[in-house]
Amino acid sequence: MSIPIILTNRVDSSLYRKYLKSAKSDLKDATEKILPILRSVETEGDLALRRFTETFDGIQLESIVWNPMDVQVHIDPDIEKAFLKAKENIESFHRAQLRKDWSIQVDGNRLGVKHSPIPSLSVYAPGGTALYPSSVLMGVIPAIIAGVPEIQLVTPPQKEGLPPILVWLAKILGIKRIITVGGAQGIAACAYGTESVPKSEFVVGPGNTYVAAAKSYLAGLGLIGIDSPAGPSEVCIIADESANPMWLACDMLSQAEHGEDSSAILLTDSEALAKEVSRELEKAFEERPKRLAMKKKAIYENSAILVMPNIEECISFSNELAPEHLEIQTKNPEQVFAGILHAGSVFLGPYSPVAMGDYISGTNHILPTARGSRIYSSLGVDTFLKRVTFQEISRESLSRLYPYVKTMSELEGLDEEHGTSVKVRTEGHQH
């Protein structure tokens, strides 16, 4: 068995249509299963959280909420150094995103925008084998820069207690509350609030299908804001004959390592390169057996190498795919990048693997998946800022523009009050 190498073109779309299908998991079944959980948390609060935690995690909660300052932990100095460096880079990149308030004169009136942060945030951190402490940095740092006043971490309980790395991260980030409830019940606690868990207006962070279903459902009800609907991790790579086939294989496998439902699509105009990458993948399976079954399933069932007539067709296909991660490994990556319309995050040149953005470069790795980058952007400071528009109308402008308001309000049948509210001000009645 080997990864499919497909020679295709834009006309014969039947050969690759399957790779344009949304990679997002079907949340219908998961949503049906979590609805009773959400309702129980809404009505029973902490009692439901304790019951579901014992049922799903096999743990009787000693406490639902922890103050990380009360927990002593020891972290390996090398791990501290790595995360502090990542924190520094993420802060530098996200500070540059901070918006300034502004105003302009339009037709004699002062109009403008004032930015204000959302009031509260929960950052979900998965537990067990899916513990991704780097995602805590990605979720919390832009929110702090945006000025969000209330931030809490939410994570499934562990039999060994709180993961030391999460406690340490909470301390260095200034987070004063860790909620030890996971799954759909943890998201519900954030959305509804309980006796112990303060309600949050916004929830971000990765999680399993039930977490994703809970976030999407509760966001649909308007109870919380979320980053974007989440699906399996994915990468698309555009490469020409100048690319290193071993490096390309490594980058495809780095996505396959996330889970068996992950996907890696290589788009190239070189059949020779395609064959080399396929050989390198097989070689890697023999040399690096960790998570082998998972990686093989992701590569053999969800991934492909598509050989296109030219790089322009690769760009076109990538824009249709709208991938979470896009690597461009060509002779002139900037020229290719100029044609890219949709991608969560783009990695330019041979020395820019996705793993750099995952951990250390400073960009955010919480990204839209499942073709979501057509309408969503990566998590950033903007995610946590609201725009409030304002206007200060001058007396002269009000009188001059009233005839237009009169005409438009009459057309819409709202002239009696809308039109009058402007008209009375033109008549000079003041108190």
TrEMBL record:
Pathway annotation from the record: Amino-acid biosynthesis; L-histidine biosynthesis; L-histidine from 5-phospho-alpha-D-ribose 1-diphosphate: step 9/9
Top-level lineage group: Bacteria
Protein family per UniProt: Belongs to the histidinol dehydrogenase family.
This protein's UniProt keywords: Amino-acid biosynthesis, Histidine biosynthesis, Metal-binding, NAD, Oxidoreductase, Zinc
Its biological purpose: Catalyzes the sequential NAD-dependent oxidations of L-histidinol to L-histidinaldehyde and then to L-histidine.
GO BP term, example: L-histidine biosynthetic process
Lineage, uppermost ranks: Bacteria, Pseudomonadati, Spirochaetota, Spirochaetia, Leptospirales
HAMAP family found in the cross-reference section: HisD
EC number in record: 1.1.1.23
Source species: Leptospira ryugenii
Binding site for NAD(+): 124, 185, 208
Record's protein name: Histidinol dehydrogenase
GO molecular function, one term: histidinol dehydrogenase activity
Positions of the catalytic residues: 324-325
Pfam families per UniProt: Histidinol_dh
